[in-house]
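ARCHIVE RECORD
Type: protein–small molecule complex
Small molecule: manganese (II) ion
Source of inputs: curated submission
Record status: active
Notes field left blank by submitter.
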Amino acid sequence: MAVVMKPSASDEDIERVVKFVKEEYGLQVDVSRGEFQTLIGLIGDEDKVDFDRLAVLPGVERAYRITSPYRLVSRSFFPEDRIIEVKGVKIGGDNRPIFIAGPCAIESKEQIFRIAREVNEAGANILRGGAFKPRTSVHSFQGLGEEGLEYLAEAGEEYGMPTVSEVRSEKHVETVAKYVDILQIGARNMYNQDLIEEAAKQKKPILLKRNFGASIEEFLLFAERAAAQGNKDIILCERGIIPIGRGRQFTRYSLDLSAIPVIKRETYLPIIADPSHGTGRRDLIYPMSKAAIAAGAHGLMIEVHYSPNEALSDGPQMITPQELKKIIDVCKKIYMLNFSDA
Ligand code: PEP
Ligand code: MN
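STRUCTURE (tokenized, with ligand):
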């Protein structure tokens, strides 16, 4: 349910509604202050709420039921695009697409500094690098942990780029939040509600990756969990779903491009695409990046290494900084075309 306050409603009017909902019905609320009006979303089982009593409180314009299962992040609740600003980089809405680039994993101080410099020169806005890596095999490189985060933060500082790294477990939330600007929840953890809630409490933007088997509805329902913690700075990321049949011979995952315009219609949150994990193949990064921006993505996350064949993880899908530059340049043109289309 959403309660729309009148433009003239005072802070006391808003407080009265919040108190009423909490005390009468034991529900939590989400207060969204727009430019002109305030919207109050109800969190929890709203079946017991008496609309008529709410609707007559001072300052209330109307109260209505939202049919979407993810009410707080739904466009039907709040129609304006959310713009997330991280150290001067604006993500979402009509802003130019943002490019998150960096290695799959931080391997050494030298490696992340060199990649930071080169992706920065190529036009990337945000630096990525995994420190606590989710790996299928215990024998693979697991990441440098906190040491890697230190290097990432220093490199981001040096080249003036905000940073993002994955938080794989609840026990690392505070450590990762100490170093990075954006907390990534990986595809394997999209269903981990405790981790999402803990990460959201850090009051830093969340980059939530879609699980490879998740429906769009499930994806948005888990974003809703972060929103219910009072944190709506959520960047969604389409990173490929499980390919059907023999498709797996050719690509690691199938980048679900149709999810991008669907998600933009369903929610006001920004949505980016990750063609690196979404294909698993470096020769497909260029075409799929162009396609994702053409489909309306607010940005891309791309794995980059100066020497992909020597990378300790995900070498086959990594591109060079030179290739990244080509992608960024062409994507900026595609964005301008989209824009003139609208
Ligand atoms: C990553 O971005 O480093 C990663 C592991 O991606 P995903 O969670 O999408 O597999
Ligand atoms: Mn990777």
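CURATOR ANNOTATION: Residues 11 and 292 are 42 Å apart (CA to CA).
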